Amino acid sequence: MRVLPAVLVALAIAATPVIWSLARSRLAPSHAPAPAATAAAELEELRAGLAALGARVAALEARPAPGPAPEPRRPAEEANAAASDSLQDAFAQVVLIADRRSANAGLSVASPAFLAGLLGPPREELTDVCSVATNARLTGLLATENVGPIEARLVQPALVSLRQVFANVQVFEPELYARIRSAGSLCVRRVRGSEDAASAHAYGLAVDINIDGMLDELADGKTQLGLILLADFFRKEGWIWGAGFSREDSMHFEVSREKLEQWRRLGLI
To answer: Is residue 95 a part of any domain in this protein?
Structure first.
């Protein structure tokens, strides 16, 4: 709305005393002349007032029109927002894992022997330190890609599967999706405590995940609440959760044997 009409009214009101004073000076009897000094002072005061009002008009005209006021939230919306904020704050909270041994019901771990028979050894010599894969068949399958919230180096079908996991998380748990971080994927090494068994990481079939960059403590039976929520998304895509291992490793997710056999039937590996 323009403010000019209102300002004109204000100017008229401000000028009234001076106009009245001038009128009195003209209508006054000849023996009582109006003091010229007083009228001049009042005119000067009026000019100053007009200048101030003009500056205010310019400032008001330059202001953008106010937008519509936001609609108030309903009580149910307020409660949902509060619950969402509360859960969001709890994603990185460390809690006990309930019934963790049944976390991978219906899925089987791909043993080192099965992986070696499927793809061959990732390299001739394995140590506890991450090394480079030398198996030509394996290296031909490996790629590094952004799969949503993280970047991972895995075999191609695992990248496709992991991208689907995170796409589902983004749809159903967008606040959790935004806080997912990686603690590593491909790492050609042996299983901890083993002499020659290759880890699933050595084949580009596993990824370590955390919330907000906070690493989970190994074998303490606890994990971040966000990882418990993520585990269900991984399981539905055929991934094993490390929380179900005899030595709990809840940051760890790896492709199940069933999924690998499916990929072999499809000619993907």
So the answer is: yes
